[in-house]
Specification:
The protein is an alpha/beta fold and about 700 residues long. Helices cover about 40% and strands about 20% of the residues. Strands 3-4-2-5-6-1-7 form a 7-stranded parallel β-sheet, sandwiched between helices.
């Protein structure tokens, strides 16, 4: 039986009346699989391949009675994605009389209340809203989820290797106690590799096996590489870069992805300035990032979706990497090297819906950035994506979930708490001894309290955490300041050292001069600044993967580089000429005398090796890891010969971080709930997650 014939009459009528020519390949696979297997499944398919319908069609097809409870729970990493999917599902469900309800902090409260009175249909929700419900209103969870048959998790790759993913796995465990049946789970993703498939086999916390349904997609990929060498203090290369972007924007609708919020603003401001003086320009320009007001972001998204042929360019951060529908995008600009192949794949996949061609322009202005970009492009063309390392022993998330669980159950004895934690596999790598050590520490710090009946409840020190809606999230946000021009809120900026009145900043695509900063109120007051004046520049950084660094070395020393232009070949050759291979290691010669060690290792391994050198010699090593892959210090050539045969033990690393407070803080300050964890376990966490000992040991052992 073909997939279309497997659907019920209502769904077949919807597809026919909507004018679909046929089901997409991934939709056919999912419909057939859902009927022939009881397994969970993950749909891995490119952007705009019909993944949403591939999940919902088989799930909806299996349900006969929509009025006896919420039958499908859709979990999204973003509220914006929920709002987008709500519109898509309404067109599918309205004619069939199926209720679709959004449930998050910005959703309509009257519709939530109506759903609680008569649970039915489909609910679209975030992990944070599930957490809030279980903590504050567990009776609502029992009402809503009792009859749930399906749980759909969108953009599931965004949860892998993240604390938020650990939290979601724990929430799936906890939801299982509220459902009368074991729901089937579906994950959706456009960016997965083979190692991710292995991790996803255990992601869903139930007794079903998980299968992967893959559609590689048929879109062609095109790319152009632009290299404009940047001299120190030279603005000419930036003008050349902007010329490329601006001229392309006159012909195509584009997304421009720099690697920092500051560069988003810089490029957006330049494009707007050019457009204001170009009477022949009919394109529209926007910036899009998390520090802009919601309405500003929504305006850009809606304009793009409803553009109807009008050209637009949105310069954005990762906020537009995920599957928010912004209509047809002709091409993508990657400004500066992406940190990994998965990021580039996600970004380039946003283009080509109309043309069937994923079109990329890569722009670089520095040799190492050029080399890193070439490496990611090659790997993407070969279909080799970076793996997402799992979080090992996430004690901080466990501590958060312990507080959440004792509140949900209105107190738990230690044995009962351990039983709750052992329901699924999420905490299986954390021993019972470690769990007890964590509980004891939380009791001593008064994050937990022990009652006379031996029940654990939330303690005095937990109350400040619980007063804020922030308790429900695993997001860690740097302190931010709200920026106002007169009475108009124009966005937020990070509170960074060195920011002063009189400085200029870029925000919402414009240049502003700071008039004053009110630190207690967390406000900045600004006025428009003159175009071209210098501005305060913040710095963002992301880790680069080992697979990218290894390909960078391969390209640099490849005999045949005929695929690149003469200028690019010349740049690569010049870069290679500055690097010497000596006694098994690569070194970059410098004017300062001491050569730099060029490792061609990923960011995490570079940090590990730098710590190892400091542990061994007492010398602090600087890392240049944004695009280059170099360690800088004195006598590194001699040190590497001495360290190559030295096996640094786990205990030595433990003692090192135990005495280096600043390093321990630096490696854990991104963890929102690290203060709940005892120092001993926090050091274990750093060694397990922030270091890459296996790669470094392999690197040293392979030296000739």
């Amino acid at each position: 039986m073909d997939a279309f014939s497997r659907l019920n009459r209502s769904l077949r009528e919807y597809i026919y009346q909507s004018g679909w020519q046929e089901l997409r390949p991934i939709q056919k696979k999912a419909i057939t699989f859902a009927q022939e297997s009881p397994n969970n499944f993950v749909i891995a398919a490119p952007t705009a391949s019909g993944k949403t319908e591939a999940a919902f069609l088989p799930a909806m097809n299996s349900i006969e009675d929509w009025d006896t409870g919420v039958r499908i729970v859709y979990i999204s990493p973003l509220i914006a994605l929920i709002n987008d999917q709500f519109k898509r599902l309404m067109s599918l469900c309205s004619e069939m009389g199926i209720t679709v309800t959004s449930w998050h902090g910005e959703a309509n409260s009257s519709k939530k209340k109506k759903l609680l009175k008569k649970p039915n249909g489909i609910v679209l929700i975030t992990p944070e809203s599930i957490e809030a419900m279980l903590v504050g209103r567990p009776h609502e969870a029992r009402t809503l989820f009792a009859e749930t048959d399906w749980i759909i998790i969108d953009e599931i790759h965004s949860f892998l290797g993240e604390n938020r993913g650990i939290q979601l796995q724990s929430l799936l465990n906890r939801l299982a106690t509220y459902t009368q049946r074991e729901p089937r789970c579906i994950g959706l993703s456009a960016t997965l590799n083979q190692d991710d498939y292995i991790n996803l086999k255990d992601f869903f916390q139930n007794q079903r096996e998980t299968s992967i349904i893959v559609d590689r997609g048929a879109n062609e990929k095109e790319h152009q590489v632009f290299y404009f060498p940047k001299a120190k203090g030279d603005m000419h290369s930036f003008k050349q870069e902007m010329d490329v972007i601006y001229q392309a924007s006159l012909k195509e609708s584009m997304l421009v992805f720099p690697n920092s919020r500051n560069k988003v603003e810089k490029i957006g401001s330049n494009l707007n300035q050019r457009a204001e003086t170009d009477m022949q320009n009919f394109s529209s320009y926007f910036v899009h990032h998390a520090s802009l007001p919601k309405q500003t972001r929504l305006f850009a998204e809606e304009f793009a979706k409803e553009s109807r042929g009008r050209k637009f360019t949105i310069t954005c951060t990762s906020t537009l990497e995920l599957g928010i529908d912004i209509g047809s995008v002709d091409s993508v600009v990657q400004y500066g090297a992406p940190p990994n192949v998965s990021t580039l794949s996600q970004r380039i996949g946003r283009s080509g819906r109309r043309t069937g061609v994923n079109k990329l322009r890569f722009i670089a202005n520095e040799p190492w950035s050029l080399l890193q970009g070439l490496a990611t492009i090659e790997l993407l063309e070969e279909g080799q994506l970076d793996n997402t390392p799992a979080v090992n022993k996430p004690y901080d998330v466990l501590a958060h979930q312990i507080i959440s669980l004792v509140i949900e159950h209105n107190g738990l004895t230690r044995p009962n708490l351990l039983t709750e934690l052992r329901r699924g596999k999420v905490w299986e790598k954390i021993t019972e001894e470690e769990i007890n050590e964590l509980i004891d520490s939380m009791l001593s710090k008064e994050y937990l309290e022990l009652l006379d009946n031996f029940e654990l409840i939330s303690g005095y020190e937990a109350q400040p955490l619980l007063r804020m809606a922030e308790f429900y999230t695993q997001f860690f946000t740097e302190p931010e300041l709200r920026v106002y021009h007169q009475l108009q809120h124009i966005g937020t900026i990070a509170l960074e050292p060195g920011l002063r009145p009189g400085d200029n900043i870029l925000l919402s695509g414009k240049v502003w001069r700071i008039l004053g900063i009110e630190f207690e109120q967390k406000q900045v007051h600004v006025m428009p600044a003159k175009v071209g004046e210098a501005y305060f520049e913040s710095r963002d950084r992301q880790d680069v993967s080992n697979i990218v660094r290894q390909r960078m070395r391969e390209i640099l020393y490849r005999d045949d580089q005929s695929r690149y232009s003469g200028e690019i070949r010349s740049t690569l050759n010049h870069l290679a000429d500055k690097i010497v291979y000596r006694d098994g290691f690569y070194y970059q010669l410098t004017d300062q005398g001491d050569p730099w060690l060029v490792t061609f290792l990923g960011s995490k391994a570079n940090r590990t090796l730098a710590y190892m050198i400091e542990l061994f010699t007492g010398q602090r090593v600087r890392i240049n890891d944004l695009h280059a892959t170099t360690l800088m210090g004195k006598d590194l050539d001699r040190t590497m010969q001495e360290i190559r045969d030295t096996l640094v033990t786990y205990q030595q690393f433990y003692d090192f971080f135990n005495r280096e407070d600043s390093l321990l803080l630096g490696e854990t300050n991104h963890l929102k709930y690290q203060q709940l964890v005892p120092r001993s376990l926090m050091i274990d966490y750093v060694i397990e997650n922030q270091l890459d000992l296996m790669t470094v040991f392999a690197y040293l052992s392979e030296i000739e």
